[in-house]
User: What shape does this take?
Amino acid sequence: MQIPMVDLGIQYRALQKDIDCAISEVLETTQFILGPQGRAFEQEMAEYLGVKHAIGVASGTDALHLALRAAGLGQGDEIITTTFTFIATAEAIAYVGATPVFVDIDPQTFNIDLLQVEQAITSKTKAILPVHLFGQPADLASLKVLCDARKLLLIEDCAQSCGARYADRMTGAWGDLGCYSFFPSKNLGCFGDGGLIATDNDTLAEEIRVLRNHGSRERYHHEIIGVNSRLDDLQAAVLRVKLQYLDRFNQQRRDNAHLYSRLLSELGIDVPFEDGKGIHVYHQYTILTDKREAIQAALAGAGVASAIYYPIPLHRQKVFLDVCREVSLPVSEQSAERVLSLPIYPELTRPQIEQVVEVIAGSL
Assistant: This one.
């Protein structure tokens, strides 16, 4: 039985009638950019997240970039973030001319290490940018206290945590800005690229709306140099359908993850740790193992997909060596040698999970 990392086809077939109808409605109205579907999705997302503003943009990377631009961050500013994440987080910092300051991660949650964040703050620090990696919220309460005390912006990278909750609020609703990706494989994914920025700040929201639309409030009147980054109505229509099922899908991910953990724990595998401070939505199910090559080879031989997120921490990437040459972040470096992500998606079945575990058991 072939088992992919994520099966987008099975989800489409389950929602096909509603999705096809939504797409057809956009095609009939021919309102493709900044139209009614986009506006409706923004309103529904704002309500879902519990924020005043949700602004659709063209990708998760654009969400980070425009959030930083709107916040006025740039040359000479330092932004503290995690080294153990996808490069888009740090790319966005570089786009605005600021300097990424990479810190290490907690060895259990893979999220940013709060003690190291505090130690990294300098007079140039203007913001902290945590990533809710693999779907587990970072320690937002502590980060919020720290940012308020030091007068720093808190900008959340929620690309992997859509639908995750920390205490009484969603991820993305704690910081000054929350940035989302709707890449197809995400917990809430569209049929192409898409992103969104959440905020309670009226001024920041207005600035983002201007920036995403060529720096224009009024057609053909341009106040600043902006970009072309609008979430199109076809993607918004798909997302509106899927949003209705997001909580159910996330619970199915959690159920599947917990089944994995029960079975793999019996094999002595280091399974994902939930710190209990937030609701982990398992965008990825990631184990730690010293036998990664053997396990991956066995899985591949059995037709089971697996992936390594991430093989090279950002402070070791060639593009950042000029600012990170002397940096040592051992937890991230060691994790990069041991992490392995297994198939995880809402429609994954118990027999499929048992097959994955059986293959892993046979490889040990």
User: Anything to note?
Assistant: The chain has a mean pLDDT of 97. Residues 246-363 form a domain with the Aspartate Aminotransferase, domain 1 fold (CATH 3.90.1150.10). The radius of gyration is 20 Å.
